[in-house]
Inverse folding.
């Protein structure tokens, strides 16, 4: 029996309350996106957003200034470039989520991260301002996903020629960030 959409919110909330489900939503995403989601899908979306955001800020907060413009190899991004990329990507992901949650039928384009990085001029930015911007953006992202009704988390749309659900985008925000936390730990420190 198919549950009417207006009652799905109640049933999902009931399942979360009594069965402690961290992820009661449909996670629809491409194989490429799934590799990011897999890094954090053992948590609920809000927990993943909070945990990865806090880890990222803690990791970058006390880095010596000479590390801000450090790159581990020729033609690789500096840490400032990475922070700017994370900020840009989270804005794009949030726009996609709100578009699909509002049932906008538009097919959304990809974003060319390398071109964006070149145009962002991260090297000219103040480090502390970038970290403040990320903190505020992540707070906004958490509010955005908290505002969606449970059944809206299952809504889907097309971005970058791939079908993706709103819930998957919530996990993507955190998984993408966790991916960059891992790279920073492995290659920049």
């Amino acid at each position: 029996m198919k549950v009417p959409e207006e009652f799905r919110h109640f049933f999902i909330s009931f399942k979360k309350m009594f069965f402690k489900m961290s992820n009661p939503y449909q996670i629809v995403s491409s194989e490429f996106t799934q590799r990011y989601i897999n890094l954090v899908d053992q948590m609920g979306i809000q927990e993943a957003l909070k945990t990865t955001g806090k880890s990222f800020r803690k990791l970058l907060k006390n880095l010596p200034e000479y590390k801000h413009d450090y790159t581990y190899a020729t033609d690789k991004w500096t840490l400032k470039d990475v922070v700017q990329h994370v900020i840009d990507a989270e804005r794009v992901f949030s726009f996609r989520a709100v578009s699909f949650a509002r049932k906008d039928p538009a097919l959304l384009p990809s974003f060319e991260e390398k071109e964006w990085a070149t145009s962002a001029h991260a090297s000219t930015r103040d480090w502390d301002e970038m970290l403040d911007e990320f903190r505020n953006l992540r707070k906004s992202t958490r509010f955005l996903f908290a505002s969606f009704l449970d059944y809206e988390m299952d809504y889907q749309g097309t971005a970058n020629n791939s079908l993706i659900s709103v819930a998957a985008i919530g996990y993507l925000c955190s998984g993408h960030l966790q991916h960059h936390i891992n790279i920073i730990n492995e290659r920049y420190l």
